[in-house]
């Protein structure tokens, strides 16, 4: 039974709040810092992010690949054999099935006492249970020896940490200025786009240092382009993309002499159009806490930070064609 559709009966499991004899544990409480720039995820994963620029508004990074999703769950190191024995005996006392059988199986394994290694336990990124966790109810915890010949695919790795870091990254939104201004755009007149941001690359590190298990991964997001979208098919072109230019004071864009400027062909009438501006960020990752470490594979998708504003487009007879 996948954990995305059902949960094991863990009586008194401190992680799930089930009382003695419980047959269905309370769902985990999501970590309030799970998506913040600095905080924690799971049990012992720490998140640290660099500054994203002074005075800039920020938004959670979104993936340019709509099919990419961060990990729903993973295994983290949690218990020594002695701690695990104590946990099972205290948390499963009086448990009903199937938790009772689960506790019995762990006892039959003698909790791997006198063996070198740790018990790793499944942890969740948040409380979105519509996405199935691939861990099943009969391996809520796994035994991991120092030399793991067949590591579980859901065991925490630098690659998983990089995906969690990516999903926690906050990026500055584009400080876009429109000319004419957003409340005075004109039909058949190209919309000039300009901005100058004092932000630079943004890095986020996800790391764990618990019971001798140390690993980290750092994602580095570098801004490369600005894309603007008219928000209506009554424009030609409906979108434009501009390369960012880096100067001493940060990145800038000015479409004054560009070959592409969004041009509205019809007024917004009594309403508005949702004009959207998105910065594309090239994202790499390294398997350490050093943002300047060598880039690793597999590659992460580009990130996006988006700002949307309503624009009013007026029709002026003198500029009609």
Protein architecture, described:
This protein is mostly beta strands and 321 residues long. Strands 1, 2, 4, 12, 13, 14, 17 and 18 form an 8-stranded antiparallel beta sheet that branches. Strand 12 and strand 13 form a beta hairpin. It is elongated, with a radius of gyration of 26 Å. The chain starts with 38 loop residues before the first strand and ends in a 7-residue tail after the last strand. 34% of the residues are buried.
Task: Compile the SSE list and pairings.
Layout: E1 39-41, E2 45-49, E3 58-60, E4 62-63, E5 73-79, H1 81-91, H2 99-108, E6 118-124, E7 141-144, H3 158-168, E8 170-172, E9 177-179, E10 185-186, E11 192-197, E12 202-210, E13 213-229, E14 239-243, E15 245-247, E16 250-254, E17 273-286, E18 303-311, E19 313-314
Parallel strand pairs: 10-19
Antiparallel strand pairs: 1-2, 2-12, 3-8, 4-18, 5-6, 6-7, 9-11, 11-16, 12-13, 13-14, 13-17, 15-16, 17-18
